[in-house]
Amino acid sequence: MSYTRQEEEGKDVIIFMEPSAATTPDKPTSSSSESKDQSAAFNPETGEINWDCPCLGGMAQPPCGDAFKEAFSCFVYSTAEPKGVDCVEKFKAMQDCFRANPEAYADQLDDDDDDDEEEAEGSDEKKDVKEDDVKNV
Q: Which residues lie in Acidic residues bias regions (predicted)?
């Protein structure tokens, strides 16, 4: 006998089931139209990218949708090691497009600037630690 119980806080779900149910894989019941609504942008079974996936956050839409599609496709299908190293120029072109259209991508550009500042601060802290360690020796 199997049953499901959700904790009071609402974040945990506990599922009790027979061992045979846990080891038997579920058969897919979704149709091809339902699979387009799934949260993953890339379907490895079909090799297709779902450009309408909400997980892409509208990045595939104009004004820089074409640049995004080129860079994302390149990364998804890349066989280089490390993965995507052959796509750097396409990602740079996408980033240039974002910067040329700040009205459409202001939120993403602001987030990138914050990350750059944090990285710069972090590297300064590492330098300070190393200099202090040298002084104490």
A: 108-122
Q: What is the pTM of this model?
A: 0.53
Strands 3-6 and 13-16: antiparallel
pLDDT of residue 106: 75
Q: Enter the tokens of residue 68.
A: 């995004």
pLDDT digits (tens, 9 = 90+) for 44-61: 999 999 999 999 988 999
pLDDT score of 105 more than 60: yes
Mention every residue, 6+ apart, whose C-beta is less than 8 A from residue 101.
Answer: 63, 64
Can you read off the two tokens belonging to residue 13?
């779900």
All domains in the chain, ordered by first residue? 59-137 (1.10.287.2900)
Q: Half-sphere exposure (CA, 13 Å, Cβ side) for 79? A: 0
Reduced DSSP (H G I as helix, E B as strand, rest coil) percent helix, strand, coil of the chain, to 5: 55, 10, 35
